[in-house]
Amino acid sequence: MRKLIIIILIFQAVIIQAQKWVDTSYQIEQINDIVYGNVVDFAGNERSLLMNICYPKNDLPPRCGRPLLIAIHGGAFLAGNKDTESPPRWLTDFAKRGYTTASINYRLGMFQTNAEVNCNISAFGVPWNCLNMQDTAEWYRGYYRGMQDAKGALRFLVNHAAEYQIDPKNIFLVGESAGGFVALATAFLDDPTEKP
Predict the structure, then answer these.
(1) How do strand 126-132 and strand 116-123 relate by DSSP bridges?
(2) What is the pLDDT of residue 117?
(3) HEC profile of 136-169
(4) DSSP 8-state assignment for residue 74
(5) What is the pLDDT of residue 53?
(6) In this structure, what DSSP letter does residue 97 have?
(7) What percent of the chain is helix, strand and coil (3-state, nearest 5)?
(8) Cα(132)–Cα(121) distance, integer angstroms
(9) Measured between alpha carbons, how far is residue 46 from residues 37, 81, 82, 137, 154 in Å?
(10) Block means of pLDDT (10 residues each) for the chain, length 196 residues?
């Protein structure tokens, strides 16, 4: 019976400790517009890549550091940024749970043709052309640039792990729409032969 009570107490201690990454119990601090890289965009313009970083300020981080979550916005590789839609919410929600979080911008844009896509919507009986077309290769290039920039953000954060108290062996990527594709490519595309 004594062994059973000890096992139950140990199990309860593990459950209580596991709540650290679940409950939104921490106060947070956020630093905006940190430059994590300088790049050339699709049109040859030089750009600075920015990120927002958020972390708990009243926690006791593990000796190895906090888990890191990188949030990547969507927008069809043409629009969006680190301050819109879901990434700001993910940034604060996960920091309140004990994570160090970052929301990143990545290079947007691609060359478009003059051809238009008919969206099967008619205005007063006339088909409406709602989008300009891009060559498929432009979508691949936009996707690849996004992945390169996300990997740059990841390198920046790992190189600053001590400063932001990050565990470089405990990293998560999350994205919406195009950001989801960028997150997947960042995690899994690691061989040059896999380049689209």
Answers:
(1) antiparallel
(2) 61
(3) HHHHHHHHHHHHHHHHHHHHHHHHCHHHHCEEEE
(4) -
(5) 97
(6) T
(7) 35, 30, 30
(8) 15
(9) 11, 17, 19, 22, 20
(10) 53 54 79 93 87 91 91 87 90 93 89 64 65 67 89 96 94 92 88 72
Residues 6+ apart with CB under 8 A from 12: none
- Contact yes or no for 64/161 (Cβ under 8 A): no
- Distance between CA 152 and CA 158 in Å, rounded? 10
What pLDDT was estimated at residue 9? 47
Q: 3-class SS at 34?
A: strand
In the sheet with 66-72, reading across from the earlier edge strand, the strands are: 28-40, 46-56, 100-104, 66-72, 166-175
Which helix or strand (DSSP H or E) is residue 95 part of?
Answer: helix 87-96
